[in-house]
Amino acid sequence: MKAVFKTTGGKEPVREQALSFTAGDFIFREGDLGTEMFIIQEGTVHILKKLGAESRILSRLEKGDFFGEMAVLENIPRSADALAHTDVRIIAINGSRFDEMIRRNPEISVRIMRKYSRRLRDANVLLQQFAGADKIDLEHAALPPDAPKSPEAVTRHRLVDVATGTAFFFSKGPETTIGRSDPVTGILPDIDLTQVDSHRSVSRRHAKIVRQGEGWGILEEVGTVNGTYVNDERIPTGVAVPIRHGDRVRIGLIQMKIVFE
Questions:
Q1: Which of 213, 173, 211, 197 lies closest to 256, judged by CA?
Q2: What pLDDT was estimated at residue 223?
Q3: What ranges make up the beta strands (E) of the chain?
Q4: Per the CB 3.0–4.6 Å rule, which of 17, 59, 189, 246 could disulfide with 179?
């Protein structure tokens, strides 16, 4: 493991630490004390939980994902192991830096809230199962993260990736979320661009397509990093811009076109 420390100069204490691990190294172990969370710059990290004599993979995390935040939020020992599945580079963030990041980037706090909301829903399902409940509270129950959408849940309206020709269909409802699957929260967008986004240029919750009367618009989410463009013009965050059949849409670095049927 290699560490590179960063400061902002003067006598201010170190707040960020760049770390490198080789495949098979443990970043931390269950029960360790910790005062830092981590953001992955390169590589893949597995979060493991020991159940009896076996370790179960709870999450597979990649570039841009974070982990270990419970130690910062609650000052408690680590609740699972973090293993470098490949060679990885990560940034360690201490409490003061974490507070600053929350203020500057609201997407981080939103993702943390979604993560804990999902945990509460899962716990609610387990409690009802242990109690022998005949019915599950659908408002709080969690769906499997990779549950397939039924054919009835889509329309023929779609975004088409110009480079590969891959079609991504709108959801049947009035909103269609666009982004990448989020292993931290287990949440899938309606249009998951992971397979065509080799450069990780698309944010987890990047944009959404919304119905506007008889037409449609596209709206960029708060916290999006690499922008959203319609016919080569950057759209403002939080404002729905009308889209029409044949329009060119760029999500991060992914060039797409609108097809309405």
A1: 197
A2: 74
A3: 2-6, 16-21, 26-28, 36-42, 45-51, 54-61, 66-67, 81-84, 88-94, 154-161, 167-171, 175-179, 191-192, 205-212, 215-220, 228-230, 233-234, 241-243, 248-251, 254-259
A4: 189
Q: How far is CA 220 from the centre of its chain?
A: 16
Closest CA to 37 of 109, 97, 107: 97
Identify residue 139 by its one-letter amino acid code.
Answer: E
Give the H or E element holding residue 126: helix 106-130
Strand duo 175-179 + 191-192: pairing: parallel
Spell out, as residue ranges, where the chain has pLDDT lower than 50: 2-14, 134-154
Six token digits for residue 65: 């994902």
Phi and psi at 123, nearest 5°, equal: -65, -35
Burial class (CB in 10 A: 0-12, 13-18, 19+), 25: middle
Q: Are 80 and 30 in contact (CB under 8 A)?
A: yes
pLDDT of residue 118: 65
* Model confidence pTM above 0.70: no
Write down how long the chain is.
261
The answer to whether residues 231 and 247 touch, using CB atoms and an 8 Å cutoff, is yes
Please report the pLDDT score of residue 138 as a whole number. Answer: 40
Task: Output the six-digit token pair for 96.
Answer: 């003061």
Edge-to-edge strands, sheet with 26-28: 26-28, 81-84, 45-51, 54-61
Handedness of CA 178, 195, 251, 41 (dihedral sign): positive
